Amino acid sequence: MIRRLFLLALVIGLVLAVKAWSDTMGAPAAKRHVVESDELAPGAAPITIALISDIHVAGPDMPPSRLREIVAQINALEPDLVAIAGDLVSEKRTATHIYTAKEIVAPLGELSAPLGTVLVPGNHDHWFDWPGLESELAKIENMTVLANEAAQIGPLAIAGIDDDFTGKANLPLALEGMAALTGPRIALTHSPDIFPQVPVNFDLVLVGHTHCGQIAYPWGGAPATMSDYGDLYACGVVKQHGKTLITGAGLGTSLLPIRLFTKPEIWLIEVRAVGR
Asked: Contact at 8 Å (CB) between 25 and 61?
């Protein structure tokens, strides 16, 4: 009996190990969502945004070489704009290698989208070396970094809000920059917890941070989401008061270099005119 239980536990352990390896190191799943905006003229062409977050460049699971492969995957999807919702780096104690700011940022220079790339910092970026990362990002053509600022990017009005988890978010300041902008109103930030405070005239809020739990239950939900709202904003699409929130699962890992029952994600969000 004891031997049978031991063998059963061994089999279950091996199955979970294989599943964790697949979930951690597999190519990101491309998920799609459509948002209609009355700020686009009826005949206007749709705009496709590729949302990624929580890249967490560090060994063993996210060396720069793997990020380059993911960048190539994003380019093949041909988005009009790439939006990065923070956490470029991981300084986790379990990391086998910590890369320099230059090594972390370099693969992002290979992103190719007509409207470029827009990026906001996350908590790990601030804990690691945000000035160093920001300096490297400034060298990339068509890279827009927003921290409590807003910018007109093509037909889109984008507010980039700094990280709420580390107390650096200043939503009123970001909203000030939106006053003179036109088009669909989009907020990009790291943590989903700011979603209830975003005004209802925003079409879309794009975030990461939660990793969809990173290590989740096979039936859904997770032991921890790093959100004050629990599972409410932890993963996927949420619609409230006319606003749409999309929380991506991210690409890399934090704390432990393992994903289980959550997979890396690239979200492709098509913003189109109402009724198109």
From this structure: yes
Which residue from 219, 266, 215, 267 is spatially nearest to 244, judged by alpha carbons? Answer: 267
Q: What is the pLDDT of residues 231-266, one digit of tens each?
A: 999 999 999 999 999 999 999 999 999 999 999 999
Indicate if the pLDDT at residue 15 is higher than 70: no
How does residue 92 score in pLDDT terms, banded at 50, 70 and 90? confident
**Residue 28, preceding peptide bond in cis (omega within 30° of 0):** no
With contact defined as beta carbons under 8 Å apart, do 264 and 22 qualify? no
For the record, the structure tokens of 220 come out as: 């859904």
Distance from C-alpha of 195 to C-alpha of 206, rounded to nearest angstrom: 9
CB 64: neighbour CB atoms within 10 A?
18
Sheet holding 117-119, edge to edge: 29-37, 265-273, 47-52, 81-84, 117-119, 143-145
| pLDDT digit string, tens, across residues 205-222 | 999 999 999 999 998 889
Which pLDDT does position 8 carry in this prediction?
57
Amino acid at 65: S
How far does Cα 102 stand from its chain's mean position?
A: 20
CA–CA separation, 125 vs 212, rounded Å? 19
Residues above pLDDT 90, as percent of the chain: 88
Q: Minimal CA–CA distance to 265: which of 253, 248, 252? A: 248
